[in-house]
């Protein structure tokens, strides 16, 4: 039976329709249910696929859940890459860049997206004791980090990025404060969102894109 990493490659090159339908079913169920609430019985009932077919395409039910989590994680990665690539290519000045990124932060870090942030953290937490999932999820995370690093490297070449920041460091830090917003998502009291965005703007102005950062 192929590994999760091999199955991820299959997804890019053409995946068996039955396997794809099972993954898609779990992806949709995760909009309204937690992983613990999704059973093989429910997936088979909704998809109309037999148990034998499920275990023909997956080593176990856990593998199906893993691939569905990775699929959703990949969706976030693809959206982030699309938004940031379009933004960075469209700006010409530091002020415009900071203003546009602040708006993107307001969208990506909105309180109503707390479930999405927690879901990403849940997927990441699964890799600690799961080499099978660590490989494929790590590939997706690497794709996002390297893309952001490349975008930041281009901004440095245009005299907009901080020349003292290694592009990969910048990419990881950018994701860290975005995902780190989740530490306030599940507490009883919450910080002021506008003050959070003010803090983000200070990071953008003083760390990522300080004035006079051109070489």
By CATH reckoning, the class would read Mainly Alpha
- Report the strand count: 0
Radius of gyration based on Cα positions:
20 Å
The rounded distance between the terminal residues' Cα atoms is 53 Å
CATH fold annotation: Tetracycline Repressor, domain 2
Unreliable residue runs? 1-6
How much helical structure, as a percent, in the residues? over 70%
The CATH superfamily label reads: Tetracycline Repressor, domain 2
Sheet having the most strands: none
Strand fraction equals: under 5%
Secondary structure class reads mainly alpha
- The helix count comes to 10
Mean pLDDT: 89
Overall form: elongated
One letter per element, helices H and strands E, the order comes to: HHHHHHHHHH
CATH architecture: Orthogonal Bundle
Query: What is the number of independent domains?
Result: 1
What do you see in this structure?
There is one protein chain. The protein has 215 residues and is mainly alpha-helical. The protein has a single domain, classed as Tetracycline Repressor, domain 2 (Orthogonal Bundle). Helices cover 70% and strands 0% of the residues. The protein is built from ten helices and no strands. Helix 2 packs across helix 3. The protein is elongated.
